[in-house]
Amino acid sequence: MRKVEEREISQAVIRRLPRYYRYLGELLESGVERISSNDLSKRMKVTASQIRQDLNNFGGFGQQGYGYNVKYLYTEIGKILGLENDHNFVIIGAGNLGQALANYSNFENRGFVLKGIFDANPTLKGMSIRNVPVRMMDELNDFIRANDVEIAVLTIPKSVAIEVAKDLVDAGIKAIWNFAHVDLNVPDNVIVENVHLIESLMRLSYNISRYNEEHKLDK
Amino acid sequence: MRKVEEREISQAVIRRLPRYYRYLGELLESGVERISSNDLSKRMKVTASQIRQDLNNFGGFGQQGYGYNVKYLYTEIGKILGLENDHNFVIIGAGNLGQALANYSNFENRGFVLKGIFDANPTLKGMSIRNVPVRMMDELNDFIRANDVEIAVLTIPKSVAIEVAKDLVDAGIKAIWNFAHVDLNVPDNVIVENVHLIESLMRLSYNISRYNEEHKLDK
Question: Taking CB atoms and an 8 Å cutoff, what residues of chain A touch B104?
Fold first, then answer.
């Protein structure tokens, strides 16, 4: 069995992994110890062959006639997703979205630990969310270095996001979870994961139009 | 030139369209009237051949030696994305995330019009966000029918999301923008666009691990 790190896994498979992780977690919670690719297929509404193909990327998790060991598979996928270690993060932008993310206890359950919240607005100074105080931007650089912060969450307007991203890179951040609707220009060693909500809404609107057109053509 | 509606466009292209739309919108704002696929390629950091291939899906927008007419292309992509018509939506769940989305004026600029906000918590009754009052869930069905609501945004816990989705389907909703971390079980004629934030964060964490591993192997 080859080690996972030695293999290149396609981004398409990576996109699907968290969903496997979720279903396996739910199976674990309901006390299911093993599951066949067929049963998992029915639950997840993907083909059994897709499941086998995806999970084969990580070596021989399944056994003929036995199926998958749920706990083992859940743990291994968790390791692949980097969830066996905690990840410290800060939120930059204490507006509604920043506050919403700060309040998600679900992140903490997965090992994402909120260390700090930052904003440029001095009227927010002194405010706390879940006991994490809102700090001013001039403290950001030192704070990241002192608190082993790996991830910065950007919930600020796009007009300032590029500038702040530069500061984050200078401070040695490893990854940016970017909610600002702009492409950040960062070196290759800084990971960016974009959440462009308006683009998601446009895909939804595309699919409504598409459905309406098809429905019209059917008549 | 075939009509757009008659062609099947791959989901991969659809995923990229909003990004084209954004860049073209920014070009328009800065007064650029036409652009070559090469120049667009440099800005967007995708290959020129990818751009030509993607945009060819929608018929002959580009002209040899002239490039793309920015306004025309922007308008056409907007039509394809279903943005030439307004879309009424409601938000279900007036917590932090629901409030954040209700406050996004950017959605309205793109023709997504917030008609109502709903919550199960009676203490929120009487609260308003941008002049839109929070209503109780027992009004939901009638409200959707009376206000030509196409889209419901679900910002409620996963424990209740499946049940609420059923009610939405009964009320004749066309599409659900789902922020609850669960797969909704709806008929094929209801469009679902999922935003699973924790899964996005897991992909980011995967990429950090991956980078760390590669970096270790380099030494």
Answer: 197
